[in-house]
Amino acid sequence: MKKSIVLIIFLPLILFSAENDSVKVWKPNPALAAGLSLAIPGAGQIYNRSYFKAPIAIGLEGYAIWRSISANSEMNDAENRGKHYPPSSEEFEIAKSDWKSARETRNIHLWVLVGAVLLSTIDAYVDAHLYGWEKEMADPIEPKRTSLEFSPYLDSTGNIGLALTLNF
């Protein structure tokens, strides 16, 4: 009870004091962003203040977890069904086929989960590293005009020719 009262009193003070500090500019720590993204889906994106990316990371990782758990449950059900039939029966072969299919689905979605976690972690790390980069950019370099000129010329032997001049 005392901890919650202390938290209720001091949390607004901490938040308001952080907002009033206009001298210090916040810049995210890339390692912390990557660690948060590894630990909790979407946490690294929220830490980086990329709020529109967080639901994508949460959704993709959540979908992969849900499908993996669902396929694992189907695999267990098929295994339990197969135990009730003799190994040479048709029902056993159907249960065995269902088990293999569910195992393949589970493994695919576990790999999707690994990929989604890695993608989310890399995104959080790079996003934190490049935070505020567009503000630090200098004025863009203006390209020079390219010109192409054809001009007649006369060489020392009296031959007439055409010169091509290309300026970048």
In the sheet with the most strands, the strands line up as 1-2
Shape descriptor reads elongated
Average pLDDT level: 82
Order of helices and strands: HHHHHHEE
Low-confidence stretches: 10-15
Q: Tell me the radius of gyration.
A: 32 Å
Distance between the termini: 74 Å
State the helicity in percent bands.
55-70%
Question: How many strands?
Answer: 2
Description of the structure:
It is a single chain. This protein is mainly alpha-helical. The chain has a domain at 26-131. It is 64% helix and 10% strand. It has six helices and two strands; from the N terminus they run ααααααββ. The protein has helices spanning 2-20, 30-39, 43-47, 54-83, 90-129, 133-136; strands spanning 147-154, 160-167. Strands 1-2 form a two-stranded antiparallel ribbon. It is elongated and about 105 Å long.
Topology:
Elements: H1 2-20, H2 30-39, H3 43-47, H4 54-83, H5 90-129, H6 133-136, E1 147-154, E2 160-167
Antiparallel strand pairs: 1-2
Observed structural traits:
elongated, mainly alpha, single chain, two-stranded antiparallel sheet, 2 strands, 168 residues, 64% helix, 6 helices
Question: What is the gist of this entry?
Answer:
With 168 residues, the chain is mostly helical. Helix content is 64%, strand content 10%.
